């Protein structure tokens, strides 16, 4: 039987290719709202980040999300994403642990 193909995505900050499930998706919805999408299924333009805070800080410094989402991301949205990212980081790590157990 043929092994199942694992979709790969690139972190916009560190440029490392990783399986899609190991990355956090930031999405710009059609209503121009920028938010974290843990499901990976919200409609809109997406950008992927490693689950590490250091990658988020690098993306902030390099304005990587601006380029990936093809629009200007305001400082207020970066601040909100930073707060959300820290809150989501623990949940994301726990979800990865559950997947590895299966």
UniProtKB/TrEMBL annotation:
InterPro entries: YlxR, YlxR-like_sf, YlxR_dom
Sequence ranges assigned to domain YlxR in this UniProt record: 9-82
TM spans (from-to): none
Matches recorded under Pfam families: YlxR
SUPFAM superfamilies membership: YlxR-like (SSF64376)
Superkingdom per UniProt: Bacteria
NCBIfam families on file: RNA_bind_RnpM
Record-given protein name: YlxR family protein
UniProt organism field: Paenibacillus silvae
């Amino acid at each position: 039987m043929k092994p199942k193909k694992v979709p790969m995505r690139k972190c916009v900050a560190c440029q490392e290719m990783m399986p899609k499930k190991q990355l956090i998706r930031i999405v710009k919805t059609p209503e121009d709202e920028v938010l974290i999408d843990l499901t990976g299924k919200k409609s809109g333009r997406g950008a992927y980040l490693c689950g590490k805070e250091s990658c988020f800080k690098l993306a902030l410094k390099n304005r990587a999300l601006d380029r990936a989402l093809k629009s200007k991301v305001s400082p207020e949205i970066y601040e909100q994403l930073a707060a959300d990212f820290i809150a989501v980081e623990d949940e994301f790590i726990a979800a990865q642990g559950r997947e590895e157990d299966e």
